[in-house]
Specification:
By secondary structure, the protein is α+β, with helices and mostly antiparallel strands. It has two helices and twelve strands, in the order βααβββββββββββ. A hairpin with a 6-residue loop joins strand 2 and strand 3 (about 90-100). Bound molecules: fe (ii) ion (FE2).
Length: about 220
């Protein structure tokens, strides 16, 4: 698919959380990605049940990866904590921690992915691009739909039409936490934020809350 990152490979796989559950999932995901390389829909179909099983286990995510972040690259105090990324940056797993009533910007990911709710509730609003993306800074979006997402639910990201969204935490007292399984190094690449009312876009790099900016 045409949305691969052009970042250099890392020196090695990077682990930020020690967890047998996460290690087992990563090993399985790597096997699935390798055996379904030509068909990412098959990758997602095969991977999803294993991801659902990981989400059901509620003790493997350390507390410091379940916190908001006042210096968020996404704004709104949203924590984006890197849990694992592969040497080739073709498998990245991070938690996204959205404080109550906070909302992400409208953004894309430029990668297939699975997003699963680990804790709390969210409302996801999905957008579709109507223009041909050839004019710098211009983007004409329409809303495809809004979806209530609760603990254990999984949704897919798939460019180009299923890749642009915003996410609001609808939990009142505690942050909502989603786990992202992505096929690029989402926090490190340049991607896009959108202002649908102004029909504008700008590139940005979200970074990760537990890594130096732009690392
Ligand atoms: Fe997102």
């Amino acid at each position: 698919m045409p949305y691969l990152t052009t970042l250099e490979p890392l020196e090695t796989d990077q682990w930020f959380v020690e967890s047998p559950e996460l290690s087992e999932f990563v090993a399985t995901a790597k096997e699935i990605i390798a055996s379904t390389r030509d068909d990412y829909t098959e990758t997602l179909n095969t991977l999803e049940p294993y991801f659902a099983a990981l989400l059901k286990k509620q003790h493997w995510l350390p507390e410091n990866f379940a916190q908001p972040n006042p210096d968020s690259g996404l704004g709104g105090g949203i924590g984006q904590w890197l849990l694992y990324r592969s040497q080739e940056r073709n498998l990245t797993i991070f938690s996204l921690v959205i404080p109550p009533n906070s909302t992400t910007p409208v953004h894309d990911h430029l990668s297939w992915g699975l997003v699963g709710l680990y804790k709390g509730q969210q409302e996801e609003t999905v957008y579709r691009r109507l223009d041909n993306a050839e004019t710098e800074g211009f983007a004409d979006l329409e809303v495809v739909g809004s979806y209530h997402v609760k603990r254990g639910d999984i949704y897919r990201l798939s460019p180009p039409d299923g890749d642009i969204h915003s996410v609001k935490a609808t939990t009142v007292f505690a942050p909502s936490i989603s786990i992202h399984v992505m096929s690029n190094d989402t926090g490190s690449i340049l991607r896009n934020q959108y202002h649908p009312e102004q029909r504008s876009s700008k590139s940005f790099r979200s970074g990760y809350s537990n890594l130096p900016y732009r690392n």
